[in-house]
Amino acid sequence: MSQPARKILIKDGPVIVLVEPQLGENIGMVARAMANFGLSELRLVNPRDGWPNEKARSAASRADHVIDAVSVHSTLGEAIGDLQFVCATTARSREMIKPVLGPTEAATRLREMHIAKARCGVLFGRERWGLENDEILLCDAIVTFPVNPAFASLNIAQAVLLMSYEWMKTADMPAPFGEAIIPAKRENVAALVEHVIASLDETSYFHPPEKRERMEQTIRSILTRPGFSDPEIRTLRGVVASLERRWLKKAGKQPD
Amino acid sequence: MSQPARKILIKDGPVIVLVEPQLGENIGMVARAMANFGLSELRLVNPRDGWPNEKARSAASRADHVIDAVSVHSTLGEAIGDLQFVCATTARSREMIKPVLGPTEAATRLREMHIAKARCGVLFGRERWGLENDEILLCDAIVTFPVNPAFASLNIAQAVLLMSYEWMKTADMPAPFGEAIIPAKRENVAALVEHVIASLDETSYFHPPEKRERMEQTIRSILTRPGFSDPEIRTLRGVVASLERRWLKKAGKQPD
Predict the structure, then answer these.
(1) Residues A150, A214: contact at Cβ < 8 Å?
(2) Inter-chain contact B10–A149, Cβ cutoff 8 Å?
(3) Which residue of chain A comes nearest to B147, CA vs CA?
(4) In whole angstroms, what is the distance from residue B190 CA to residue B213 CA?
(5) Chain A contact for B147, CB < 8 A?
(6) Which has the closest alpha carbon to A82: A185, A196, A193?
(7) How far from the centroid of its chain's Cα atoms is residue A226's Cα?
(8) Burial class of residue A117 (count of CB atoms within 10 Å of its CB; 0-12, 13-18, 19+)
(9) CA distance A178 to chain B (A)
(10) Among A5, A131, A138, A195, which residue is least crowded by beta carbons within 10 Å?
(11) How many interface pairs between A and B have CB atoms less than 8 angstroms apart?
(12) By three-state DSSP, how is residue A5 classified?
C-alpha cells in the first residue's frame, strides 16, 4: 500500500508587519491569509489590545504556527531593523519620491530580493488611516492595489491576502541573471541617517527650527530610497565622519 | 475653483454565482469584494437562510448596489442559463475532462469573452464542500488557486476577492486579434444535451440502468467542453433530429 502523501507546510518569504492594528479578528484573519499562501512571520507594532489576543487566535482558523511566532515591537524602526527590503502598502498614492509598484511587480521585486538572501518585509497600516508618511519614509517602495475608484475600502486582511497570493504566484520564478545588490539592514540605514543628522546639528543646517522636521524627513527619504548596500553605507559613513573631522578641525576642536 | 474629481463606480464584468451559500456574512463579504474590484452582478442558488438577508447587507459594508441587485435561483441551470462562458472554482483538481486554469489565466479568458460580448460567470461552491461534480460539468473550465498545500482553506469571500482582483487586473488588456467564437448560452447547451438524452432514451443506449447516471454525465461533459457556438448547436440539433427521424422511420413510426 502506498503511503498517503504528506502535505508540505510552506513557511517562507517576507515578514508581514502590522502597524498599530486595532482588532484581534483582523490580526487573526491576516495570519490565516498568510498561512494560505505560505508566509509565516508576523510582527506587530503596538497592537491596541495587547498580545496575546484570543480573538486573533480564533480568527486565525488554526494558523497556529503563525500566531505562535508573532513578535511585538514598540517602534516600527525596531520591527523592521533587521530587514533589507521593505514595501509599504497604501490605499492612495502619496507625494513621495518612492517607486510605486502594483502587487505583481512588488511580489516580483520581493522574490528577487528573497532569492538573493535579503530579508524582506511588507508593512500594512492601521485599520482607520493606514500608515503615516514618516513610516512610509522608512521603506524602499510603495505598493498600491488596483481597486474600483468609488469603492476602494480594502481591509487589512484582504490586502495581506492579495499580497500573500501574489507572493505565492512568484514561487516558480527563476533566479535573475547577475548579482543582485543586497540592501543593508534598515537599522544600518537608520544609523546612517542619524549620523548625518547629528553631524548637521553641529552646523547651522537646521534653520529655521520650524523647518527642521521637514528637513530631516527629506534627508531620511533621500538616504533610504537608493537601497544602499552595507559597503555603500560604510563608505558614506566614512565620508560623513571625514567631513565632521574637517569641520571640527576648522573650528579648532580635536575630534575624539 | 476646480470641481472635485467624481469617482467612477465600475460595474461590469462576469456574474458571480454562489451555490447554496450558508452564511449571510459570507454573502456580504463576497458583495464587498466584488465592489472593490468593479464587479456588480451576484446570483444565489438556494441560499440557506433565504433572501433578503440583513447580515449579508451589513457585512457588505455599503456595497448596496451589489446587494440590491442580487437575484435568487432555485437551480444552477436557471442561474447560469443566459451565460455563455462559465468557470467553476474548486479547491482540488477533479478527474474531469475540463481545462484547469489558474486565476490569472481564467481572468484573461473571461476578459477575452467579455470583450467579444459573451456573458460570463464564475461559480463558487458551498462553504463546507464546494461544488458537486454534476455542477462543475455544466461549466467550461475549472479554476484552482495556488495555495499552501498544508493550509488550503480559502473561504468563499477570499476566493471571490482573488478572482475579482484578477479580473480588475485585466482591465487594460487589449482586444485579441481575430474573431472570438462566442459560446452559446448555457441553456442552449443544456437543451442540446436533453435532446440527445431524450433521443437515446428511444433506443437501448442506457443499459444497464445502474450505469445511466454516469453515461448521462459523460454525454453532458462531452457536449459542454467544446464551448459550441449557437450556429454549431443548431447544426448538432439538426443532426440529432435527423437521426431520430431515421430511427422512427425504421421502427415503422411516423415522426411528429
Answers:
(1) no
(2) yes
(3) A37
(4) 16
(5) yes
(6) A185
(7) 15
(8) exposed
(9) 29
(10) A5
(11) 85
(12) coil
What DSSP string runs through B46-98?
S-TT-SS-HHHHHHTTT-HHHHHT-EEESSHHHHHTT-SEEEEE-SS--SSSS
Q: What is the mean pLDDT of chain B?
A: 88
Where in B100-147 does DSSP place strands (E)?
Answer: 100-101, 120-124, 141-143
The Cα of A124 is separated from the nearest Cα of chain B by a number of Å equal to 18
Structure-model confidence comparison of residues B57 and B222, the more confident one = B57
Q: How far apart are CA B244 and CA B175, in angstroms?
A: 42
Interface test with B, best of A101, A148, A164, A169 (most B CBs within 10 A): A148
User: Amino acid identity of A221?
Assistant: S
Is residue A131 a contact partner of residue A216, using CB atoms and an 8 Å limit? Answer: no
pLDDT at residue number A2:
43
Is residue B92 a contact partner of residue B141, using CB atoms and an 8 Å limit? no
Nearest C-alpha of chain A: how many angstroms from B240? Answer: 46
pLDDT at B37: 94
- Residue A174's pLDDT band, with cuts at 50, 70 and 90, is confident
Length of chain B: 256
Run of H or E including A141: strand A141-143
Q: Cell 479568458 appears where?
A: B109
Q: Which of A9, A102, A152 sits opposite B148 (nearest CB)?
A: A9
Q: Provide the 10 A C-beta neighbour count for residue B179.
A: 7
Buried b (16+ CB within 10 A) or exposed e, A17-51: bbbbbebbbbbbbbbbbbbbbbbbbbbbbbbeeee
CA distance B121 to B138: 12
* Low-confidence winner among A104-113, A157-166, A182-191, B173-182 (lowest mean pLDDT): B173-182
What ipTM did this prediction achieve?
0.76
pLDDT of residue B6: 61
User: How close does chain B come to A239, measured CA to CA in Å?
Assistant: 46
